[in-house]
Amino acid sequence: MSFEELNERLKRFVISGQEDAAEKTASEILNAGLDPLEVIEESLSSAMKTVGRKFEEGEYFLPDLMSAAVAMQAATRVLTAGIKEESKEKLKAKKIARLVVGTVSGDIHDIGKNILALLLEANGFDTYDLGKDVDSMKFIEKAAEVQADVIALSALMTTTKPAQKEVIEFLDEMGLGDKYIVMVGGAPTSREWAEEIGADGWAETAEQGVKLAQTLVRDR
Amino acid sequence: MVGAYEMNGEQSSKSTPKIWRQFLQQSAKFWEVVKSIENGRVCLENDFDVKLLMPTLREVVKAYDIRYDPELVIPADKGLADDVYEAALELCLKVGTYITDARRYVRFEEKDIEDALEQSPSELTFGEGSDASVLTPRKVEDKNPPFCMFGAGSPVSEEIYLDVLRSYAKERLANTFSGGIGLNSVNGMTIRSGSPSEVCAAILNAILVRQAAIDVGRPGIGIHNVIGSAESTAAIIAANRPEFGIRKMDGFLVASLPELKTDYERLNKVVHLLSSGNIIGALYGPIMGGYSGGPEGTAVVTVANAIQNSLIYQPHYHMCFPLHITYLCNSVQELLWVISIVGQAISGNTHLLMTVAGELASGPCTHMALYEAAAYAIAGTVSGLNLMAVEVAKNKYLDHCSGMEARMAAEAGHAASGMKREDANELIKEILKRYQDRIKDAPIGKSFRECYDLKTITPSSEYNSIYNSVIMDLKNLAFEI
To answer: Rounded to an integer, what distance in angstroms lies between the CA atom of residue A36 and that of residue A34?
Structure first.
């Protein structure tokens, strides 16, 4: 089988969320002598972009997204083992940015946030998902710990969106207002709300959230 | 489930206060559920979602060959409806419900589920006196009009909150109305979940919902959901007092978490409502595009919620609102199919008191909102459901809701009573042509202040004109309201 065929097969297995097949093909790619770094950066990245597009167009749903992510992770694990140490650092450095994401304090809804986290990871962000009902200070502590560039705050209730404001207030009062990009989203939020609380950006959907993060990081 | 709740010797002694014994007796089934939870299987929440729910749902959808056909928004297929019901029952038995605080999931025995369904109320009176209304189950293509609950879930400014509530309570077809609309502030304070402001908002919410009923001359009208401004049990307990105008026959909704999950906060609310004797409504909104997957999975999960929550929440009635993950509405074609097949599955296999909440993408004073409201109401009505009319503009924009959108849904529901599903299918497909390509960028319309006269609580001439033009257009489609 040619290099191109192996690459195409890997992409196909990732897009269709076939974990075992993706893992096996990744091993075959290593054995065939292909550059694993190139495969990760181009084939896997391209496959996940296709997955993201399918989700955006309504062809894929969260389960498809998760299966594809699992298949990608399996292939990445195998391929990473074949990368030389110095290249591993290069791969790490190539991540677009570090991002801390979570649903704010008092809010136990996390499906939209989970989708955002998956799409961000698939689009090259080093993503730290803190889960749901996250204490406002926890976002700041984690951002400091991992040296994050972005804090992304999700809220799904009118009564929990004030917690987004609280995180920004904490950052300002701690003198960290300019250290991180803060983006907000979730059903009850809006562009006006984001402006009112001093967030750097607002996204209505998970897909828009990825584009927003890319733009904010690029323009910083 | 573990054995029936038994009081030990000390508890059952004659010296035990009667009121305590009565409470235990009334809530005995619920305590069996709680004991089952304590004996549930330990599991990470992510594993429940990914390793248990998702594959099992996929498996049952495939096994029962449940398929969404875009040509049939309203399927007339009893076999398909029964398959959805059976698939949902199997999902309940294999997956159960996850309790996030307990870090356990519980799977109930089929017999316990059957008993709960069998013992669920088949009739429920809301309100009192001449304003009382009786909620009953409906059948597919039922000639009886749907029971119409009026309300919305948008945030509303404190200054006009009472006016907005009045706009719902005064509507002629409103069998009940709701305080589910959220106050945007209380006494000038931003309402923050878990803070004193939330408790304060719940109290004001309760007072004003009763006041609205009195103001419009319907003091006895039922309130199917007293509070929309607060979620915490503490806030509900603080507000649920007769001094604030809340009666035992008023209802409170207890929500599930998507998908097939609950937590102690919600179960605590059940304990309070069992002790207060209020009407309990089980609320659930499976998300299409989330863990439920596509329309087929969303339909199965919605029915599974109805089945399982009959046991967990001991509800008097149910309210579902399947929702699109991106568009935050259920007026898109796939969700209208979900509403229809869920209605047919539930009404054909149970006597549950089932309502469906309409979720509109667009806002007040737009043609689109009225078309969306009509499509949702027709889908629900011909499929054997009662209506909760309607959530507006994705429940998102301040002051963007009014009684007028609910009026259209209720009038369309009444007009669709007795309609054949095949006719409803053709009609809805025509209505969809009028708005479906604008779902992504749905107009938010006008705020309540802009489209209602605040002195008379009547729609503006502009809104009346839009309403009449939609009625005329529907008449041209041979659908007379």
So the answer is: 6
Do A82 and A57 sit in the same domain of this protein?
yes
**CB distance B338 to B288 below 8 Å:** yes
- Complex ipTM over 0.90: no
Range of the domain at A195: 95-219
Please check whether residues A78 and A173 belong to one and the same domain. Answer: no
B291 vs A107, A111, A190: nearest CB:
A111
Q: Is A135 helix (H, G, I), strand (E, B) or coil?
A: coil
**Hey, what amino acid is at B426?**
E
pLDDT tens digits along A123-164: 889 999 999 999 999 999 999 999 999 999 999 998 899 999
Shared domain check, A205 and A117:
yes
Q: How many domains does chain A have?
A: 2
Q: Which of A108, A162, A188 sits opposite B263 (nearest CB)?
A: A108
B205 interfaces chain A, CB cutoff of 8 Å:
no
Mutate to test the interface with B, among A56, A60, A61, A205 (most CBs of B within 10 A): A61
DSSP class of B359: E
CATH number for region B124-476? 3.20.20.460
How many CA atoms, within 13 angstroms, populate the side-chain half-sphere of residue B32?
20
Q: Which residues of A touch B201 (CB under 8 A)?
A: 159
Q: What is the pLDDT of residues B285-297, one digit of tens each?
A: 999 999 999 999 9
CB contact under 8 A, B291 and A63: yes
- CATH number of the domain encompassing residue A38: 1.10.1240.10
Residue pLDDT, tens place only, B148-186: 999 999 999 999 999 999 999 999 999 999 998 999 999
pTM: 0.92
Statement to judge: residues A77 and A101 lie in one domain: no
Candidate from A111, A157, A187 with C-beta closest to B290: A111
Coil, strand or helix at B178: strand
